[in-house]
Amino acid sequence: MNGDILLNVPAERLVPRKKKKKITFRRVLFLFFALLVLVTFAALFLFPTVFTLTNSFMSTTEITANYGKVFSGLGAAGNGGRVFIGEKVNLQLIPSKVSFSQYSTVLLRSPEYLLKFWNSVIYVLPIVIFQVVTAAGAAYAIARVNTKFRAIVFFVYIILMLMPYQVTLVPNYLVIDAMNLLNTRWAIILPGVFSPFSVFILAKFMKRIPTSIVEAAKLDGAGEWQIFTRIFMPLCRSTLYSVAILVFLDYWNMVEQPLILLNSDELYPLSVFLSKINQGDTGIALAIAVIYMVPPVLLFLYSEDYLIDGISYSASVKG
Amino acid sequence: MKDKLKSPAAEDEFELLPLASAPAPDGSGGAEPKTKKKRRGLSKRERRERFSTSFFMLPSLIGVLLFFILPFLVVVYYAFIDSNASANFVGLDNFVSLFRNTAFKMAMRNTGIFSLTAVPLVVSLSLALAVLLDAKVPLKSTFRTIFLSPMIVPAASVILIWQMMFDYNGVVNEMLASFGVAPVEWLKSGSGYLVVVLLFLWKNIGYNMIMFMSALSNIPRDIIEVAMLDGCGPVRRFFTIKMRYLSSTISFVTIMSLINSFKVFREVYLLTGDYPFESMYTLQHFMNNTFSSFDYQKLSSAAIVLALIMIVIIGILLWIDNRAGRGLDE
Questions:
Q1: B96-324: CATH topology
Q2: Do the chains contact at A228 and B4, CB–CB below 8 Å?
Q3: N or C: which end of chain B has fewer CB within 10 A?
Q4: What is the pTM of this model?
Q5: Which among A1, A91, A275 has the least Cβ separation from residue B270?
Q6: 3-state DSSP helix/strand/coil percent for chain A, to nearest 5?
Q7: Are residues A84 and A127 in the same domain?
Q8: Across the interface, do A253 and B156 touch by the CB < 8 Å criterion?
Q9: Do residues A233 and A279 share a domain?
């Protein structure tokens, strides 16, 4: 770079010329292949979601004609003789006639699906709110004062965070059982609230808040509560938000916990219940699948940047 | 971990110095508190700080103790007794019978094989995509959004599409048939394993890719520029410079993918229910079925074995990471 400037060429002319020189044949070739790979992957990644979305607007007849051959074997054989089932499975992107009949069935005529949706909401919202609140406190204590005990606590949290469900569900189950809370909503909510994941990300973030800010606040007479609410929380706002999104996604998707801690259909969240409808009416299952993905997708579209920050932030144990 | 713990401690020492020396110029009065401080090692202000901040962690700490740590001690206890009713100490008997259990062995083998193939695949594919997106490709953020989308969409929502694809009468077999290939029982044979790997890749690549992209963008530009001036090509730049900066991210992504590979039960369960074909029987299936038979001894010993395996694997990865990342001052 320095060499170019010494050549006495005006800067405005130098830059475009350099750029033109950079677009070589190799660069074009690279871009072509890179885009080819990326577009292929993008198509594969989008395809299941897009198909679920578009096919949910098919009428029942169209769905049976297209996919009857797959799902008749799974238990929807009740109407086998009377309806037209295509000879071949026909994966069709755009419905030949857009119909909202599946949605009207789900939303207006079968309250049990909406009830399951409501179950999911009732589990996830308290978990997200209370996990973030308790985690913010713990992260504050860990980040604000450095003692051996707190370092050990943080380490234990990290180990816990890295344990798979197969390990953590056993102790969870024992406690819930001892508390006589099995097969109640609390069985899902309580362990969820204390899941250590948010503590990890929040503490990592708070450790970067310079102590000088805290010292200044103390000189102005701020107590710990004020430092926490007036300084740490506002500084962490975007991290809190991204942690909340990650927790929401995790619990909106949960399957393992309800299967073990609950055993009645009424309490199951939609995630578990969907696998049971799938085997019945395909059209309705598609519609409810779309309704189920609406909250996370909306959340994602509104706050993609926060989510990406959250993921990037969790990206290293060392911090 | 270590570096992080060291730096605040060092700061504290610095803070202590002026505090400790402050009373000294006052003369004899300062001498007494000074010795007191030495004994306790803390100033009054620091002790008050510790005390008042400790309340902030109480709710979380109590919850974690109650729901994770204390019951885990019970789990350890259960693993070493013969049954909850008689409670005789039996040493390692439960572990021995666990390792003789065919279902457990099958689940361990399946999960092990799955993790060993799917984790390297997902790490390398997501790193490759991250590098591609990092190379100033048009529509970068659109691609990023698309690759992240499977993480957002609930597994249960798209499971129907997977069933349409991989059923015996499904789309994949029809496509194969048009090439003259015989149909495959994707979900009811050994090839079910391939389907599970595909689902896992689909779900996890985006998340890992984001972590790699942020690590790539954190590599100091000047080092890359110096290397470019020295005539270091893009491939060599990647392997000699970028890989060194990526090493800690790679080990973290590997750990997270490993944990997520244990979660693949979710997709398998949604696809095939409680009792899938042998090749898709995962550890979580084993745990679920053991839960329903209330065999606490088997459950507890299995949980402990798994916890130990995870700790060993994570320890090894962090150790490798520590060695590989040496010499970088981040």
A1: MetI-like fold (1.10.3720)
A2: no
A3: C
A4: 0.83
A5: A275
A6: 75, 0, 25
A7: no
A8: yes
A9: yes
- C-alpha span between A135 and B169 (Å, rounded): 49
A&B contacts, CB < 8 Å = 299
Number of domains forming the structure of chain A: 3
Residue of A nearest to B146 (CA): A42
Give the whole-angstrom CA distance, residue B190 versus residue A75: 24
Mutate to test the interface with A, among B125, B153, B316 (most CBs of A within 10 A): B153
Task: Please report whether residue A197 resides in a domain.
Answer: yes
ipTM: 0.81
Q: Which of A42, A151, A286 sits opposite B5 (nearest CB)?
A: A151
Cβ-Cβ contacts under 8 Å for A58 (sequence gap 6 or more): A66, A92, A95, A97, A99, A102, A283, A286
A77 to chain B, minimum CA–CA distance in Å? 15
Domain hosting A19: range is 1-43
Tens of pLDDT along chain B (330 residues)? 344 434 444 444 333 334 333 443 444 443 444 444 445 567 888 888 888 888 999 999 999 999 999 999 999 999 999 888 788 888 888 999 999 999 999 999 998 999 999 999 999 999 999 999 988 888 888 999 999 999 999 888 888 888 888 888 788 888 888 888 888 888 877 788 888 899 999 999 999 999 999 888 888 888 888 888 888 877 888 888 888 888 888 888 998 898 888 888 888 888 887 778 888 888 888 988 888 888 889 999 999 999 999 899 888 888 887 777 665 544
